[in-house]
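Practice problem 4.
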């Protein structure tokens, strides 16, 4: 966003102050106490969006489209987003040279890294499964597959995608993917040694019944 300008005017009445930093301009209200929109902590009479670096501001806005800089955020959340930006830059060199990353799930949740998921089995009841590389590389962690509409369905059937192969794939990869296609950046938390069990029906049968 070279030369981009982000100008936000607080809508609340009362005195306002402005902070200018490079191409970004912030106007934040100091008229009444506010709460951090991320953690509900009190902001007192000062908003802290102006404390974010321009790159961190873009990161917050890209990952939280509902948020506006005039809403502010607390010091702790501001530090958290700055830390998240540093994490992404250190784990995905491409983002260090530009672009606004969508944060991986573990970073969004501030998940403890010591929670590995080892020995855990999850059963997904859904439709539209596919053997996504994040689930089967370098080795498959899918234990079983059951199609309630097709008793003869086998694990190998997951290798054949169709138009319905998206919802079950999405939920299972978000929960258990190891980030194979993103060099480990977009992985689940926890994901290490996780095994999966699928119980699913074909979404095509649902459409047929609706007709």
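Answer key:
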């Amino acid at each position: 966003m070279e030369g981009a300008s982000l100008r936000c005017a607080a809508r609340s009445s009362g005195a306002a102050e402005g902070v200018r930093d490079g191409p970004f301009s912030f106007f934040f209200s100091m008229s009444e106490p506010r709460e951090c929109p991320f953690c509900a902590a009190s902001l007192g009479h000062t908003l802290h969006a102006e404390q974010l670096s321009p790159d961190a501001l873009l990161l917050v806005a890209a990952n939280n489209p509902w948020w506006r800089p005039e809403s502010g955020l607390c010091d702790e959340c501001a530090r958290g987003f700055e830390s998240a930006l540093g994490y992404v830059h250190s784990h995905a060199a491409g983002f260090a040279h530009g672009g606004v990353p969508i944060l991986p799930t573990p970073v969004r949740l501030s998940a403890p890294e010591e929670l590995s998921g080892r020995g855990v089995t999850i059963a997904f009841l859904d439709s539209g499964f596919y053997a996504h590389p994040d689930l089967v590389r370098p080795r498959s962690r899918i234990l079983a597959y059951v199609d309630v509409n097709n008793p003869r369905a086998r694990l190998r059937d997951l290798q054949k995608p169709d138009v319905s192969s998206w919802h079950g794939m999405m939920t299972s990869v978000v929960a258990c993917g190891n980030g194979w296609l993103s060099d480990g950046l977009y992985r689940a938390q926890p994901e290490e040694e996780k095994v999966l069990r699928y119980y699913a029906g074909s979404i095509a049968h649902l459409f047929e019944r609706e007709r």
